[in-house]
Every structure is written in structure tokens, then in C-alpha cells.
Design a protein that fits this description.
The complex is a heterodimer of chains A (271) and B (361). Helices cover 5% and strands 55% of the residues of chain A. Chain A has one helix and twelve strands. In chain B, strands 1-2 form a two-stranded antiparallel ribbon. Chain B is globular. Classes of the chains: A mainly beta (271), B mainly alpha (361). At the A-B interface, strand 4 and strand 5 of A face helix 1, helix 6, helix 7, helix 9 and helix 16 of B.
């Protein structure tokens, strides 16, 4: 991706910022928003969130990959989160175009504990992926287990993700993955910078894939967050030429009043 | 399934997010009540909404400073006071979350921080209801919000009128922060006045009068209250009598939140309490002030002079009062009955008085 294209998208993204109000969502390190590593904290009980985003990567020689994500998540119980995802992509490899819905995903996420004085927060996440539609669609059902740790050092938070993916040979086979990321809030401005290094290692011994990513999250409104980042596939640098992509996304949290059971006013004692 | 849950519990224990008593601390975060009025206060009166952000910063940055620098952080408190006054004049565009202001303190007192945040959410929703003229039955909407708040009973403050009981008599630490850092303590008490006064401004039924009163409150707060700091912690009903009559339980919830802020200040500022024990003392006090425990808690009696706060005006010493109509007036309401006159002031233990009469310590 050219420098001017990156700059253009960045300027457009900044242009939709508005002086609205605060929430804490700008600090949530969600997977792919904009870095791959995520934090160990789920949505709050009764909290819903949709997020959408894209990742555009252009490799040397004109190969092109654009992948999109549409996700809906909900805090279904205290410390439990459920999510549904659609992954789509278009790619051009050796002048051949392929596109389609890559996969449908669903996940369950459970946070075991809040970070303590000396020890990290721990969460477990399980994903199931079903076959997609089109040229790039997954062939078979797959699954992933992930362990997530979050530890803070003053305002800096560090996240570790470790995963195992089950996939048939048609979908690339099983793989291990691990990532180390961070987020850091900027002053009291409801903005954060994030970064990570993430690697996928095929179990059958193929070449490892390694990404380095850096980005930012802005709280646009009381419930909307814009994320913007740069990603680089480190194992595909050729002759010192970086393989760089851009990540951009938008998320919004909301509640659904009709789904929340509110007890009648208890007329509590005040004396 | 049970086997998996056991495994999760073991992993949680190993990960160490536990209290000093070995209990796992879970996040247990709950989303605000979904409603059309949400954020109406901010949208309609952004200057008033943003005027509270410095208070939020002040409370949590005091905790963080006293944890990181120790109880005798005189220079840090002076620096902090300058910073707070800067944010009073130049509030952030958005409200900063507590865990970026006090990241270390949030780790040792997560449940207390969560209860404070949950109550700030109720603060916001009641401001929103009063600011939104589309809400026809404000009393019912507010009671619905209070019900939702109280249903999260592990994070909801008591609806009982504890007044100043715990901050004056909750422990040997009582009053430490106000004595050591009177200036910054006064700013925090000024903000309690501000909270109540903004509520009362929003009780004006006419939009123009509401705007005018709000503007006056903000000016008075910045020009007068912050320069002549309160000598005691104001109670909500003293300065928001109409608001407190509408939702007496909310008035007490907010007074108890404000008292808990003071209690944490005192515990953090008391050098006699080791750093490693502060979380236990904060947790002990939180449990006494939660809604979930209010049926069995007996608040401490007010201390005798000279420890009693002699700056308290008479209305601050009123008690919750039920009118013949069944309506309640919360503690601090100007028309509520007096504590002393009605014999509500608990008597001190006899042995104390006897010792004093004999001239012995």
C-alpha cells in the first residue's frame, strides 16, 4: 500500500471525529481492532457491541488482499461473552482474483478473574468456524482454543495470547499461534496506542508467519470507537521492502432495554 | 460442565486475582441501563457535564498518589491540587475512566472502585432523566433506574441515611485526610456541593430557568465554593431538597458514595495502617456501606467533642423523616427532624464518660 493511500485513509478517519462524550471502550484491545492480540476482559453484562473493519495489504508484485470483519458480541452473563462473526475477503494472487465469505465464526469468552496486585487477569476463549461461501471460503469446520493474560504496569497494559487452531488440511492444517501486545492511554484524552507481535506456526512444520502491528483507538462518541492501525508481515519482507497493510474499523456498544429484567422498585428503607 | 467450571476456578485461583482472604476477585462488570434518555445531560448541558470530570480525576488521583508516594505525600498533593484546578478550568472532552487515573489503586481495591463507578453511572442516569423533557414521568423513570442499580447489590451503596457516621466514627483513621491535606479535601467536598446543586438546578420545570440556574451554579462553584472551601462534607438533601424529596433513596446512595470516597482518603492517608493492610480496611468499610448488607449493619455513633465535626450546620444533623403522607425526607433535608431533639443521637458508652469525669484518660 502506498504512503499516500495510507495517509488519505487516516485523514478521512480523523475527519469524522466529533466532540462527544466519554466511555472506556477506547481502551479495549479487541482482536483485530486494530491489533491481533486481545485483552482478557469481556463485555459487561447486558452490553452489546457490533464492530466492523477491514484490513488491506498489498504485497510486492501487485498481489492484493483485503479482508473484512463484521462482528456482534454480547455480555450474556457476568464475565461471559458470546460473539458471532463474519469474515469476508477479496484477494488477487498472480493476477487471479478470488473473493467470498471466508468463514462464519462464533465464540464464547470467559474471564476468570480481575487482575490482582501481583498477578494477571486470565481469560479463556473458544471459537468455532464453519465453512464460508465462494472461492476463499473455508472448506471444513474448524476450532480454536485461546488463553489470554492481561497484566498492567501502571498505565501500560500488556497482553499475551496463546492459541491452538484445529483445521483440516484443506484449510491449512492445525497451527499454534502466540502474540504479545500492549495498550497505553494517551493522557486523559480517551485515546490509546496499541501494538503487538503475533506469530502463527503450522503444526506440520511449515514456515511461521509473523506480524508486527501498531495502531490507535479513539473514543468518537460515548459509545463509538474508531480504530486505525498499520500491519506488517515480517516474514514476507523482500530485499528490505516492507509488506505493509492498513487496518481500520469502527465499533459501537449499546444496550437493549427489552432484554433486561428490571425488578420492581423495592421501596428500600432509608431510615 | 461442573468439571469444567471447577477447572476454571482452579485456573482463576492460580492466576492470583484474589483478595487478601484468598477469594477470587471477578470483574462482574454490568452495563448501564439502556434508555433513550442516556447522555441527554451531556448533550444538552455539556459544560455542566464536563464540570464533573475534574472531580472524577481528583478522587482517583488522590488514591493513586497516596498509594504510590505513601501517606505523607505533601509535595505530590500540592502538585495534584494545581492539576485539579487546571482541570476544573479545562476539563477533558470525555470523562476519563478510573483505571487510567488510578491503575495501581484499582488493583488493590477493585470492588470499591467498581462500586464507585457503578454509582457514578446512577448519578449520570438521574441527571439524564431530569435533563430530558421527553421523559413524562420522571419519578417512575428514576425509580426504574434505581431498581436496576440496586439489583447489582454487590456494587450498590446503601439507601439508608448514614450521614457522616462512617467517616467520623468508622475507625481510628477518621479525619486523617482532612487534617493532613485540608486544601485538596476541601475541593472534594466542594464537588459534593456541586453534585447536589446541579441536581437541584435540573429540578426547575422550565427549560430557560433550568439553563439559567445551571449556569449560576457553575459560576458560584468556580468563583465562590472553590475559593471558600466547605468545612464539612455537604449532604445531598441540604442543597438539593426537591431532588431529595423526589428520590430520597438516591440522595442517601450518593451521600454514602461520597462518604466512602472520604473513608478511602482517610485510610490511604493514615500512616499507621501498613500499605499491605489498606485493601482489607477499605474492603471492610465497603461491606458496611453496601445495599446488600444494610439490614444488619449498625452505623457507628458520632464521636464526642472534640473529635466531632463542629462545623456541621443544624440541617446536616437531621435524620430521615417520614411525613404523615408517607413520603420520606432524607437525612440533611432542611425540613427533616433533628437528631438531637428527637433523641436519635446514640449515647456514648458509659465508661467513657466515667473516665472523663474522673479526669483519667
Amino acid at each position: 500500500m502506498t504512503g499516500s493511500a495510507v495517509l488519505r485513509i487516516a485523514v478521512l478517519s480523523l475527519g469524522i471525529m466529533a466532540p462527544l462524550e466519554a466511555q472506556e471502550d477506547f481502551r479495549a484491545a479487541d482482536a483485530d481492532r486494530p491489533i491481533r492480540v486481545e485483552d482478557a476482559y469481556p463485555l459487561k453484562l447486558y452490553e452489546w457491541e457490533w464492530q466492523t473493519g477491514g484490513r488491506a495489504e498489498v504485497a510486492k508484485g501487485g498481489d492484493y488482499l483485503f479482508s473484512e470483519l463484521l462482528e456482534l458480541k454480547v455480555g450474556v452473563a457476568r464475565n461471559w461473552q458470546l460473539g458471532l462473526e463474519l469474515h469476508g475477503s477479496q484477494e488477487r494472487m498472480a493476477e487471479l482474483w478470488r473473493n467470498g465469505l471466508e468463514e462464519f465464526g462464533t465464540h464464547v469468552f470467559y474471564n476468570l478473574n480481575q487482575e490482582g496486585r501481583r498477578t494477571p487477569a486470565l481469560a479463556l476463549r473458544a471459537d468455532i468456524f464453519t465453512p464460508g461461501i465462494g472461492d476463499v471460503g473455508r472448506e471444513d469446520i474448524g476450532a480454536r482454543w485461546r488463553v489470554i493474560l492481561t497484566r498492567s504496569y501502571s498505565r501500560l497494559r500488556v497482553h499475551f495470547n496463546g492459541s491452538y487452531d484445529w483445521a483440516t488440511d484443506a484449510d491449512g492444517g492445525d497451527l499454534w499461534s502466540a502474540g504479545l501486545g500492549f495498550d497505553y492511554p494517551i493522557g486523559l484524552f480517551s485515546k490509546a496506542v496499541l501494538g503487538d507481535v503475533y506469530s502463527e506456526i503450522p503444526v506440520d512444520g511449515g514456515d511461521a508467519r509473523v506480524w508486527a502491528e501498531f495502531g490507535t483507538r479513539f473514543q468518537l462518541t460515548n459509545s463509538s470507537v474508531l480504530d486505525l492501525g498499520l500491519t506488517s508481515r515480517l516474514d514476507q519482507w523482500e530485499d528490505g521492502s516492507p509488506n505493509i497493510g492498513i487496518v481500520i474499523g469502527l465499533s459501537r456498544v449499546f444496550g437493549i432495554a427489552g432484554l433486561v429484567k428490571i425488578p420492581p422498585y423495592p421501596n428500600p428503607r432509608i431510615d | 460442565m461442573k468439571k469444567w467450571l471447577n477447572l476454571l476456578a482452579v485456573l482463576g485461583l492460580c492466576s492470583g486475582g484474589q483478595t487478601a482472604d484468598g477469594q477470587i476477585v471477578q470483574r462482574n462488570a454490568q452495563f448501564r441501563l439502556a434508555a433513550d434518555y442516556n447522555f441527554e445531560f451531556y448533550n444538552e448541558y455539556p459544560e455542566a457535564a464536563r464540570s464533573f470530570y475534574a472531580a472524577h480525576f481528583a478522587h482517583f488521583s488522590v488514591y493513586e498518589a497516596l498509594l504510590n508516594e505513601g501517606p505523607d505525600a505533601v509535595n505530590e498533593m500540592q502538585r495534584l491540587e494545581e492539576q485539579i484546578r487546571y482541570y476544573v478550568a479545562n476539563p477533558p472532552r470525555l470523562e476519563p475512566p478510573a483505571d487510567i487515573i488510578a491503575p495501581n489503586w484499582s488493583k488493590i481495591a477493585y470492588q470499591t472502585g467498581q462500586a464507585m463507578d457503578w454509582t457514578h453511572m446512577l448519578h449520570s442516569q438521574l441527571y439524564d432523566i431530569l435533563a430530558d423533557d421527553r421523559v413524562d414521568d420522571k419519578k417512575a423513570a428514576g425509580e426504574r433506574a434505581i431498581s436496576y442499580y440496586l439489583a447489582n447489590s454487590g456494587a450498590a451503596f446503601s439507601t439508608r441515611g448514614y450521614g457522616h457516621a462512617f467517616m467520623l466514627g468508622g475507625g481510628s483513621w477518621a479525619g486523617t485526610f482532612a487534617r493532613k491535606y485540608p486544601a485538596i479535601n476541601g475541593i472534594l467536598w466542594a464537588y459534593h456541593w456541586h453534585h447536589a446543586s446541579v441536581y437541584e438546578s435540573l429540578m426547575e420545570p422550565d427549560l430557560a430557568a433550568r439553563r439559567q440556574t445551571l449556569e449560576r451554579v457553575i459560576r458560584v462553584f468556580e468563583d465562590s465554593v472553590l475559593t471558600n472551601l466547605p468545612a464539612y462534607m455537604p449532604l445531598t438533601a441540604q442543597f438539593a431538597p426537591r431532588f431529595a424529596e423526589l428520590w430520597p433513596a438516591a440522595a442517601h446512595i450518593f451521600d454514602n458514595l461520597h462518604m466512602m470516597h472520604d473513608v478511602v482518603n482517610d485510610i490511604m492517608a493514615d500512616a499507621r495502617i501498613p500499605a499491605a493492610a489498606k485493601d482489607r480496611e477499605i474492603e471492610r468499610m465497603l461491606q458496611q456501606m453496601l445495599y446488600a448488607n444494610q439490614e444488619w449493619v449498625i452505623p457507628p455513633p458520632p464521636p464526642l467533642p472534640p473529635d466531632a465535626n463542629m462545623h456541621m450546620p443544624m440541617e446536616a444533623m437531621t435524620v430521615p423523616t417520614q411525613l404523615p403522607s408517607g413520603q420520606w425526607l432524607p437525612q440533611g433535608h432542611p425540613e427533616a427532624r433533628m437528631q438531637v431533639m428527637e433523641g436519635e443521637m446514640p449515647m456514648p458508652p458509659l465508661d467513657n464518660n466515667e473516665g472523663n469525669e474522673e479526669g483519667e484518660p
